[in-house]
Amino acid sequence: MPSWTEGVSLTMRSPHSERWKEHSYLLLPLGFSAALGVFDLYSGAFATSPISLLLILAMLMVCLLALALRPGRSWFPLIMVTLSYEALAGPVDSIADTNKVVSLFDFDKTIWGFNLTGWVQSSLFSPPLTYATVFLYEMLIPLVVATSVIVWRSRNREFGKYVTAMLLTSYAAMVTFLLVPTAPPWFDGVAKNLIQATGINQAPTFLGPLASFLEPDKFAAFPSLHAAYTVICAYFLMKVDRRLGAVGMVIMGGTFFSTIYLGQHYLIDLIAGSAYAAVPCILSQRLQLFKAHENIRTKMLRRP
Protein backbone atom coordinates (compact mmCIF):
# COMPACT_ATOMS: atom_id res chain seq x y z
CA MET A 1 0.00 0.00 0.00
CA PRO A 2 1.58 3.35 -1.02
CA SER A 3 2.53 5.70 1.77
CA TRP A 4 1.43 9.32 2.07
CA THR A 5 4.79 10.57 0.80
CA GLU A 6 4.57 8.32 -2.24
CA GLY A 7 1.17 9.80 -2.97
CA VAL A 8 2.62 13.31 -2.81
CA SER A 9 5.44 12.25 -5.13
CA LEU A 10 2.96 10.82 -7.63
CA THR A 11 0.90 14.00 -7.45
CA MET A 12 3.91 16.20 -8.08
CA ARG A 13 4.80 14.15 -11.15
CA SER A 14 1.55 14.97 -12.89
CA PRO A 15 1.41 15.19 -16.69
CA HIS A 16 0.96 18.96 -16.41
CA SER A 17 4.20 19.43 -14.45
CA GLU A 18 6.08 17.15 -16.84
CA ARG A 19 4.70 19.06 -19.82
CA TRP A 20 5.74 22.37 -18.22
CA LYS A 21 9.24 21.04 -17.63
CA GLU A 22 9.42 19.83 -21.23
CA HIS A 23 8.71 23.36 -22.49
CA SER A 24 10.81 25.28 -19.95
CA TYR A 25 13.26 26.25 -22.69
CA LEU A 26 10.57 28.60 -24.06
CA LEU A 27 11.00 30.89 -21.03
CA LEU A 28 14.21 32.40 -22.43
CA PRO A 29 12.87 33.49 -25.84
CA LEU A 30 9.52 34.54 -24.37
CA GLY A 31 11.21 36.62 -21.67
CA PHE A 32 13.58 38.13 -24.20
CA SER A 33 10.71 38.93 -26.59
CA ALA A 34 8.78 40.66 -23.79
CA ALA A 35 11.81 42.68 -22.68
CA LEU A 36 12.63 43.64 -26.26
CA GLY A 37 9.03 44.64 -26.94
CA VAL A 38 8.91 46.90 -23.86
CA PHE A 39 12.24 48.45 -24.81
CA ASP A 40 11.12 49.05 -28.40
CA LEU A 41 7.90 50.73 -27.22
CA TYR A 42 9.78 52.91 -24.72
CA SER A 43 12.55 53.93 -27.14
CA GLY A 44 10.38 54.28 -30.22
CA ALA A 45 12.37 51.67 -32.11
CA PHE A 46 9.19 50.26 -33.67
CA ALA A 47 8.73 53.54 -35.54
CA THR A 48 12.28 53.57 -36.93
CA SER A 49 12.57 49.80 -37.44
CA PRO A 50 9.17 48.10 -38.03
CA ILE A 51 11.00 44.85 -38.81
CA SER A 52 11.68 44.51 -35.07
CA LEU A 53 7.95 44.12 -34.38
CA LEU A 54 7.61 41.52 -37.15
CA LEU A 55 10.55 39.54 -35.74
CA ILE A 56 9.11 39.59 -32.22
CA LEU A 57 5.77 38.36 -33.58
CA ALA A 58 7.65 35.65 -35.49
CA MET A 59 9.34 34.53 -32.26
CA LEU A 60 5.98 34.28 -30.51
CA MET A 61 4.60 32.28 -33.46
CA VAL A 62 7.52 29.85 -33.29
CA CYS A 63 6.91 29.41 -29.55
CA LEU A 64 3.27 28.55 -30.22
CA LEU A 65 4.30 26.06 -32.90
CA ALA A 66 6.76 24.49 -30.47
CA LEU A 67 3.90 23.95 -28.02
CA ALA A 68 1.56 22.53 -30.66
CA LEU A 69 3.88 20.38 -32.75
CA ARG A 70 6.07 17.47 -31.78
CA PRO A 71 7.76 16.59 -35.08
CA GLY A 72 10.62 18.95 -35.82
CA ARG A 73 10.46 20.55 -32.38
CA SER A 74 14.18 19.93 -31.91
CA TRP A 75 14.97 22.79 -34.26
CA PHE A 76 12.64 25.43 -32.85
CA PRO A 77 15.03 26.69 -30.12
CA LEU A 78 17.75 27.40 -32.68
CA ILE A 79 15.27 29.19 -34.93
CA MET A 80 14.19 31.35 -31.99
CA VAL A 81 17.82 32.25 -31.22
CA THR A 82 18.29 33.42 -34.82
CA LEU A 83 15.10 35.50 -34.78
CA SER A 84 16.02 36.99 -31.40
CA TYR A 85 19.43 38.10 -32.66
CA GLU A 86 17.97 39.61 -35.82
CA ALA A 87 15.43 41.54 -33.70
CA LEU A 88 18.25 43.23 -31.78
CA ALA A 89 19.38 45.38 -34.71
CA GLY A 90 16.68 48.06 -34.38
CA PRO A 91 16.84 48.60 -30.60
CA VAL A 92 20.65 48.64 -30.44
CA ASP A 93 20.85 51.07 -33.35
CA SER A 94 18.45 53.37 -31.48
CA ILE A 95 20.80 53.24 -28.48
CA ALA A 96 23.73 54.03 -30.77
CA ASP A 97 21.90 57.12 -32.04
CA THR A 98 22.06 58.52 -28.50
CA ASN A 99 25.86 58.06 -28.41
CA LYS A 100 25.73 55.42 -25.68
CA VAL A 101 27.93 52.90 -27.48
CA VAL A 102 30.85 51.71 -25.33
CA SER A 103 34.39 51.49 -26.72
CA LEU A 104 36.68 48.81 -25.29
CA PHE A 105 39.78 50.02 -27.12
CA ASP A 106 41.42 51.67 -24.11
CA PHE A 107 40.73 48.62 -21.95
CA ASP A 108 42.05 46.22 -24.58
CA LYS A 109 45.15 48.37 -25.16
CA THR A 110 45.84 48.56 -21.43
CA ILE A 111 45.82 44.76 -21.14
CA TRP A 112 48.14 44.02 -24.08
CA GLY A 113 50.14 47.25 -24.03
CA PHE A 114 49.46 48.20 -27.68
CA ASN A 115 46.81 48.20 -30.39
CA LEU A 116 46.83 44.43 -30.98
CA THR A 117 44.02 44.40 -33.56
CA GLY A 118 45.53 47.17 -35.65
CA TRP A 119 48.99 45.58 -35.47
CA VAL A 120 47.75 42.15 -36.63
CA GLN A 121 45.87 43.70 -39.53
CA SER A 122 48.64 46.02 -40.74
CA SER A 123 51.47 43.50 -40.25
CA LEU A 124 49.83 40.51 -41.94
CA PHE A 125 47.64 42.14 -44.58
CA SER A 126 47.45 40.51 -47.99
CA PRO A 127 44.52 40.04 -50.42
CA PRO A 128 44.69 36.20 -50.32
CA LEU A 129 44.66 36.22 -46.52
CA THR A 130 41.74 38.65 -46.55
CA TYR A 131 39.70 36.36 -48.80
CA ALA A 132 40.56 33.33 -46.66
CA THR A 133 39.63 35.03 -43.40
CA VAL A 134 36.39 36.42 -44.86
CA PHE A 135 35.49 32.88 -45.87
CA LEU A 136 36.16 31.60 -42.33
CA TYR A 137 34.24 34.50 -40.81
CA GLU A 138 31.22 33.84 -43.03
CA MET A 139 31.24 30.12 -42.21
CA LEU A 140 29.73 30.64 -38.74
CA ILE A 141 26.10 29.86 -39.62
CA PRO A 142 26.99 26.86 -41.85
CA LEU A 143 29.18 25.57 -38.99
CA VAL A 144 26.35 25.88 -36.46
CA VAL A 145 23.89 24.15 -38.82
CA ALA A 146 26.34 21.34 -39.62
CA THR A 147 27.15 20.82 -35.92
CA SER A 148 23.44 20.74 -35.08
CA VAL A 149 22.78 18.04 -37.67
CA ILE A 150 25.84 15.98 -36.69
CA VAL A 151 25.07 16.06 -32.96
CA TRP A 152 21.37 15.34 -33.55
CA ARG A 153 22.07 12.33 -35.77
CA SER A 154 25.12 10.89 -34.01
CA ARG A 155 24.59 11.54 -30.31
CA ASN A 156 20.91 12.30 -29.83
CA ARG A 157 21.26 12.35 -26.05
CA GLU A 158 23.81 15.15 -26.39
CA PHE A 159 21.54 17.26 -28.60
CA GLY A 160 19.49 18.52 -25.66
CA LYS A 161 22.70 19.58 -23.93
CA TYR A 162 23.91 21.26 -27.11
CA VAL A 163 20.68 23.23 -27.48
CA THR A 164 20.79 24.16 -23.79
CA ALA A 165 24.33 25.53 -24.17
CA MET A 166 23.31 27.48 -27.28
CA LEU A 167 20.26 28.97 -25.55
CA LEU A 168 22.08 30.02 -22.38
CA THR A 169 25.01 31.48 -24.31
CA SER A 170 22.91 33.30 -26.89
CA TYR A 171 20.47 34.98 -24.53
CA ALA A 172 23.17 35.93 -22.01
CA ALA A 173 25.10 37.56 -24.87
CA MET A 174 22.03 39.28 -26.32
CA VAL A 175 21.06 40.76 -22.96
CA THR A 176 24.63 42.09 -22.74
CA PHE A 177 24.33 43.62 -26.23
CA LEU A 178 21.09 45.33 -25.23
CA LEU A 179 22.39 46.69 -21.93
CA VAL A 180 25.91 47.56 -23.08
CA PRO A 181 26.25 48.02 -26.87
CA THR A 182 29.95 47.86 -27.73
CA ALA A 183 31.77 49.13 -30.82
CA PRO A 184 34.02 46.93 -32.96
CA PRO A 185 37.61 48.04 -33.71
CA TRP A 186 36.74 49.36 -37.19
CA PHE A 187 34.07 51.64 -35.72
CA ASP A 188 36.60 53.00 -33.19
CA GLY A 189 38.97 53.75 -36.08
CA VAL A 190 41.79 51.57 -34.73
CA ALA A 191 41.49 49.06 -37.60
CA LYS A 192 39.87 48.80 -41.02
CA ASN A 193 36.68 46.92 -41.75
CA LEU A 194 38.15 44.60 -44.38
CA ILE A 195 34.79 42.96 -45.04
CA GLN A 196 33.30 46.20 -46.34
CA ALA A 197 36.50 47.89 -47.50
CA THR A 198 36.91 49.12 -51.07
CA GLY A 199 39.60 48.63 -53.70
CA ILE A 200 42.19 45.95 -53.09
CA ASN A 201 40.73 45.16 -49.67
CA GLN A 202 37.26 44.42 -51.06
CA ALA A 203 35.80 41.06 -50.12
CA PRO A 204 34.28 38.90 -52.87
CA THR A 205 31.03 40.50 -54.08
CA PHE A 206 28.91 37.38 -53.59
CA LEU A 207 29.75 37.36 -49.86
CA GLY A 208 28.31 40.83 -49.27
CA PRO A 209 24.66 39.87 -48.62
CA LEU A 210 25.73 37.00 -46.37
CA ALA A 211 27.98 39.32 -44.37
CA SER A 212 25.07 41.72 -43.87
CA PHE A 213 22.83 38.88 -42.67
CA LEU A 214 25.39 37.54 -40.21
CA GLU A 215 26.18 40.95 -38.75
CA PRO A 216 22.86 42.85 -38.52
CA ASP A 217 24.03 44.48 -35.30
CA LYS A 218 27.37 46.22 -35.67
CA PHE A 219 27.36 47.18 -31.98
CA ALA A 220 27.38 43.59 -30.68
CA ALA A 221 31.14 43.25 -30.32
CA PHE A 222 31.33 42.15 -26.66
CA PRO A 223 31.09 39.23 -26.19
CA SER A 224 31.95 37.78 -29.60
CA LEU A 225 29.28 35.30 -30.71
CA HIS A 226 31.68 34.12 -33.41
CA ALA A 227 33.99 32.98 -30.61
CA ALA A 228 31.16 31.64 -28.44
CA TYR A 229 29.50 29.55 -31.14
CA THR A 230 32.74 28.07 -32.46
CA VAL A 231 33.68 27.04 -28.90
CA ILE A 232 30.31 25.32 -28.44
CA CYS A 233 30.57 23.60 -31.83
CA ALA A 234 34.11 22.35 -31.16
CA TYR A 235 33.11 21.12 -27.69
CA PHE A 236 30.14 19.05 -28.87
CA LEU A 237 31.85 17.82 -32.04
CA MET A 238 34.59 16.47 -29.77
CA LYS A 239 31.92 14.57 -27.85
CA VAL A 240 30.69 12.97 -31.08
CA ASP A 241 34.09 12.11 -32.55
CA ARG A 242 37.64 13.24 -31.74
CA ARG A 243 38.45 13.72 -35.42
CA LEU A 244 35.44 15.99 -35.88
CA GLY A 245 36.45 17.77 -32.69
CA ALA A 246 39.92 18.37 -34.12
CA VAL A 247 38.37 19.90 -37.24
CA GLY A 248 36.18 22.05 -35.00
CA MET A 249 39.23 23.24 -33.07
CA VAL A 250 41.01 24.23 -36.29
CA ILE A 251 37.93 26.16 -37.47
CA MET A 252 37.67 27.78 -34.04
CA GLY A 253 41.28 28.97 -34.16
CA GLY A 254 40.87 30.25 -37.71
CA THR A 255 37.68 32.09 -36.77
CA PHE A 256 39.34 33.69 -33.75
CA PHE A 257 42.16 34.97 -35.95
CA SER A 258 39.82 36.14 -38.73
CA THR A 259 37.69 38.27 -36.39
CA ILE A 260 40.79 40.19 -35.26
CA TYR A 261 42.42 40.40 -38.68
CA LEU A 262 39.21 41.69 -40.31
CA GLY A 263 38.81 44.38 -37.63
CA GLN A 264 35.57 42.97 -36.22
CA HIS A 265 36.64 42.19 -32.64
CA TYR A 266 39.22 42.92 -29.97
CA LEU A 267 40.92 39.99 -28.31
CA ILE A 268 39.03 40.79 -25.10
CA ASP A 269 35.78 40.21 -27.05
CA LEU A 270 36.97 36.72 -28.00
CA ILE A 271 37.99 35.89 -24.43
CA ALA A 272 34.57 37.01 -23.19
CA GLY A 273 32.81 35.03 -25.93
CA SER A 274 34.74 31.91 -24.94
CA ALA A 275 33.74 32.39 -21.30
CA TYR A 276 30.09 32.98 -22.24
CA ALA A 277 30.21 29.62 -24.05
CA ALA A 278 32.35 27.59 -21.63
CA VAL A 279 30.12 28.13 -18.59
CA PRO A 280 26.88 27.02 -20.35
CA CYS A 281 28.71 24.01 -21.85
CA ILE A 282 29.60 22.92 -18.32
CA LEU A 283 26.14 23.73 -16.94
CA SER A 284 24.44 21.81 -19.76
CA GLN A 285 25.90 18.56 -18.44
CA ARG A 286 23.75 18.91 -15.31
CA LEU A 287 21.03 21.38 -16.29
CA GLN A 288 19.04 20.67 -19.44
CA LEU A 289 16.50 23.28 -20.51
CA PHE A 290 15.67 21.24 -23.58
CA LYS A 291 15.25 17.50 -23.99
CA ALA A 292 15.45 16.33 -27.58
CA HIS A 293 12.99 13.73 -28.79
CA GLU A 294 14.56 10.64 -30.30
CA ASN A 295 15.05 10.90 -34.01
CA ILE A 296 14.00 8.12 -36.38
CA ARG A 297 17.52 6.86 -36.91
CA THR A 298 18.11 6.41 -33.16
CA LYS A 299 14.83 4.51 -32.76
CA MET A 300 15.70 2.18 -35.62
CA LEU A 301 19.12 1.42 -34.11
CA ARG A 302 17.48 0.49 -30.81
CA ARG A 303 15.07 -1.99 -32.34
CA PRO A 304 15.83 -5.63 -31.36
Question: Describe it for me?
Answer:
This protein has 304 residues and is mostly helical. The longest helix is centred in the middle third of the chain and has 24 residues, at 156-179. α3 (27-43) packs parallel to α7 and α11 (140-154) runs antiparallel to α12. Residues 3-17, 198-214 and 294-304 have low confidence and may be disordered. The relative contact order is 0.13. It is built from 18 helices and no strands. It has one domain.
Short description, anyone?
With 304 residues, the chain is mainly alpha-helical. It is built from 18 helices and no strands. It has one domain.
Topology record:
Layout: H1 4-12, H2 15-22, H3 27-43, H4 45-48, H5 51-68, H6 76-87, H7 89-97, H8 105-112, H9 116-124, H10 127-138, H11 140-154, H12 156-179, H13 185-188, H14 208-214, H15 225-240, H16 242-261, H17 267-283, H18 296-302
Keywords:
304 residues; mainly alpha; globular; disordered C terminus
Helix-residue proportion: over 70%
Question: What does the radius of gyration come to?
Answer: 21 Å
Strand residues, percent: under 5%
List how many beta strands DSSP finds.
Answer: 0
Gap between N and C termini: 36 Å
Alpha-beta classification: mainly alpha
| Overall body shape | globular
Main sheet characteristics = none
Order of helices and strands: HHHHHHHHHHHHHHHHHH
Average pLDDT for all residues: 75
Overall domain count:
1
Low-confidence regions: 3-17, 198-214, 294-304
Count of helical regions = 18
